[in-house]
Amino acid sequence: MNLIKIIMVLLVFLLVVNSVDAVGVAPAVNEVVAGEEQSISMRIFNEDQSEKTVVLELSGELKDYLVLSSNEINFRKGQRHQEIVLIIKEIPVNNFQPGTYVNRVLLKKKSEVERTNLARVGVSSRINIVVPGEAPNLQGNLFAPNFEEDKHNLLSLEINNVGNTRANDCVSVVTIYSVLNEVVDNFASKSFDVDPTSQKRVSMSWTPNVHPGNYLANAQVSCENADANFNRTFSVGSPHLAIGRIYSDDFRLGRVSLLNLIVSSSWGSSIRNVFVELDLEKEGEIVTQYTSASKDFNPRQSRIFDVYLNTEDLLVGEYDLFVRLNYLDQEIETKYLAILERDEIIVQPITGMVVQQSLGERDVSVSLLVLAVFALVIVNIFLLYYLVFKKRKG
């Protein structure tokens, strides 16, 4: 009996998931300021392009002021989408407390309305209706690009005053936090005002004198008669790992020996699932290879990777050693010269042999290079033939 109940629950869950995947809506979020009547165009998507009827329903504190151009949409087979219009009627703002009221347009296939609660469906479009008050009401966003180390760039604060009173003598104080919640810098904007029902953009210059990594910018806006707070995460530099020393304390030619690779992270945030691949080649042929276990790096941490090198049937001499660092969907390959002695291995980096590429693109890059060289050869042959033919003709 319990097994039957479990199966029934799973079937209902699958039906709900299928219904969610079958329809969609755009835009997912709209924000408007209450006042005169206005309208929003929306697009309803038929994801699997099957024949179906989609039911739309409104929810939220101000749903009585919302009107859909249609509460049902009939899709033909192969039809991708249809347009509807949401009308927001004039709202008596004096009847409501100032603030943001969240409303939703919910979607559901008609054939499943009776089986599941429409209000629980995951496909919806959120309609944020802002009711302004007499006092200034500051809303908006903080925009922060990805900064480069020691190069100045701009943080931009976009503020909307949806109130009916001017926000006077405003100053934005920006505090930069590390991932450990440490304050690494702070600075302030010039004084500014924001007129009622208008937008103000404030730009602030910052030169990051910090380690590469992820950071949080907090902008505290303080006015004579209003306050607001905005946050934005951003990066300085880009994640980077580097191979330091490669050595072995107990190398013996003709057996499996342990190599130690010291890898260092200069990134100010954690990097997960880092692993190393190693190829030992002789005259372009791989004679042994190894893939290490993965490790996680804390901010600006160095770790040692254990790589086992099988040197059975190998002779004393020089070999090409290719080491690939794999992390964050990218691959960094470095070529080394490996000198194998009977009881010693010497690994020397080869200047200029560091190549960065995405995972899975090595073969594509090689193919493109071969094609480019081939095309260059053909062009040169054609030019040579043309010049010789022209000379003989003359």
Verbal overview:
The chain is mainly beta and 394 residues long. The strands form 6 sheets. Strands 20, 21, 22, 24, 25 and 26 form a 6-stranded antiparallel β-sheet that branches. A 5-stranded mixed β-sheet has the order 2-9-8-4-6. Strands 12, 13, 14, 16 and 17 form a 5-stranded antiparallel β-sheet that branches. A hairpin with a 5-residue loop joins strand 12 and strand 13. The longest helix is centred in the last third of the chain and has 32 residues. About 7% of the residues have low confidence.
Q: How many strand units?
A: 26
Q: How many domains would you count in the coordinates? A: 3
Structural class: mainly beta
**Helix share bin:** 10-25%
Specify the CATH homologous superfamily of the largest domain: Immunoglobulins
Note the beta-strand portion. Answer: over 45%
**Sheet having the most strands:** 6 strands, antiparallel
Poorly predicted regions are 9-21, 352-367
Distance between the amino and carboxyl termini: 99 Å
Give the helix tally. Answer: 2
Question: Which CATH top level class of the largest domain fits?
Answer: Mainly Beta
Features of the shown structure:
394 residues; 13% helix; 53% strand; Immunoglobulin-like; 5-stranded mixed β-sheet; mainly beta; single chain; 6-stranded antiparallel β-sheet
